[in-house]
Target: Molybdenum cofactor biosynthesis protein MoaE
Amino acid sequence: MNLGLVASVTSATQPKAEDSFAISFAPLSIEEVYSKAETSANGAIVVMSGMVRNQTDGKAVIALEYQAYEPMAMRVFYQIAADIRQKWSIVNRVVIYHRVGRLRVGEISVLVAVGCPHRSEAFEACRYAIDTLKHNAPIWKKEHWADGSSSWVSIGACEVQGC
Model:
């Protein structure tokens, strides 16, 4: 076993004190996430808010239900932040929050914020964070349809299908 590799992976996936990550049953707050990304060194804070919409492929949606394997999802969040800091070393703050449980149309399901001195890097890092989260995090959603039916969908599958 390569202990150097194990040590670097372990340290890379440890959260930085200035970053913030959460999986929560409670409603998410854009103001809270923004404030956690804020610092006087930033020239930009980019926030991405994912919400429950009222339809998928023309089929009426009444609610979404999210479940996560929290320990692994948090490690994915930490790794996303570590990757961001490797690609965009000027990033000051990374904030990733995701809801679990049953959410109604209009509720926020995910918030990602990146604070950075410059807007272009902030936009790129924020997009990287949400795209990587959707692809890698062990988070699933169940769509509840107006006709009473429901179906589970992997968030990663949504990246391909456009959910």
User: Anything to note?
Assistant: The two ends are 41 Å apart (CA to CA). Residues 8 and 150 are 42 Å apart (CA to CA). The first strand starts at residue 20 and ends at 24.
